[in-house]
């Protein structure tokens, strides 16, 4: 007889898969792999009872969605191996190519001495005649003779081997598969001894070893079983795949290609239940290394991509998109879309998704199954991952119907938070990077109404103890799932802020009473004030809308109320909140009423403190507000000079200007306002005038910053082209943003300071 492999503890297994770190978390609720105790009756009855117990349904397919289970599929009338054995003579599956089946056995495991897979077969024992290389050889024995001399001895060994020696059984299974492949007997219709082979393999299901079960499944799939046999085998594969520690076994045994071959079955309607379990197994493998929520990204996902899993799954999706949309097909698509979702997070997935044109197919699925929340959620989770990258955004934006599909889903499921949050995240990514998407949403008739309706619903879910009685919209209703509602609001406000980049959408939102009322309610709500990310996005939305604040806009009528609400993040401890509030006030402070409000709340003193202690970005935004507040129309420049603004501005100019010429130009504009009118000469009671020492210091600073030899000396230097490019950009900013306004300021200050600098006789 041919040599069988030793125990795995004695044999160094060779695998083409990459090493991975196993996580403690399981991929699902794993059923214990306990063998059923044998029956007291005869051997045959014991085998049927035991194996039937092992192959009972394993429970609903875990689709990571609380509203969708596969109970009807899992418990669809399976009665164990009696039914499997009654179908031993069923027709072969034509969809699994014989070449792929033979290739699954092309790499033999090493023998006891560590022989590599490419080494020749071990010598046969004297009692076993060797077979010619090819069935087409003239000397090749007949099928019956080949079976008797090569296959039957291995079957006998499988029957007689002790169940405890799992390694030997796995080795014999590998030898058996290689012999069947060499004899061309894997893909034969009604081949010799097929029933006997299946009976022996089904007995091995009793053994408590997932590794051996995968070897047995590999053989059964290789001989291309069909109908109920295929269904029961796929259920067994699904059960094994639910244990994350088994992930690497799928690659080591070499069963992945056979599973993908099953998913390539063109007869979708006949095998939809088997395909559902098979796709569920691939889903667990694709999500290997992720949380129970279903995020993958491990090395196994990259291996699946390299073996063509994405193309196979997309082909199955394409066939399902044209098939009858019934309940069974929806169950299948939940598993397939979950598998695609896991592959989207694998290393290098972007190139595979682009080459396979995955996003148009997924959009078709989303449109066709828009009423199935589980399918839609899986597809949207894929979109969320893909659109994190700019190339993914471009590809999804290239699908003309994608924005309309996303808005339709928001309209259909406005209260389903786990779906809404992913729609908003994808829309936010698209609106941030694609002008074409913003234009399409501008032309969408109900886009803004749908978004604001969802906004209102999600704002109601924020916990709030203080109702704002004057609001037409009640802010005080606290509902369950507040954390998810917070996430939805964060993503939704980001969508509105990014849509405001479009002139038409920005003007429409700034003039929309409901939009402005919801933003005010968000900033006023005590339950929201504690949630920093919501406040930041709400203030950023106000800032973007303030650029479209035309006459008669609702935002203009509410600017005093909004400006007062912005004081809370401005006075808060977080720098991000301070920065966003300053940006919004930079536009709102163009109004004299808003400027007076800021003076009443002593905001100018805070702005001057920020010039001394804030970061470069904070200084720039604070300078923008100071520019508006130094207007000579209402004596703002004089008020600021009384607070010591000149000293703070000069210090900031000397500290930051050489590294940021835009900030330097802005500060020069503020100083220009100080240099004109009564404040410059101190003739008005509202202003203290320019002190001669400040004037001298200002002129000296401007002289240094306008001299190319001293101004650009600290420009980023370096050898080679990159340093020269940065230095050239630095010079362009100096010439365009700083020099024109600084020269004008220098001339004005020099003309005003000349009489003051004359010494008395």
UniProtKB/TrEMBL annotation:
InterPro entries: ARM-like (IPR011989), ARM-type_fold (IPR016024), Armadillo (IPR000225), ARMC2 (IPR038905). Residues 105-114 have a biased composition (Basic and acidic residues). Residues 127-141 have a biased composition (Low complexity). Residues 117-126 have a biased composition (Pro residues). Coiled coil: none annotated. GO terms for biological process: cilium organization. Residues 25-46, 102-142 are annotated as: Disordered. This is Armadillo repeat containing 2. The lineage of its organism: Eukaryota, Metazoa, Chordata, Craniata, Vertebrata.
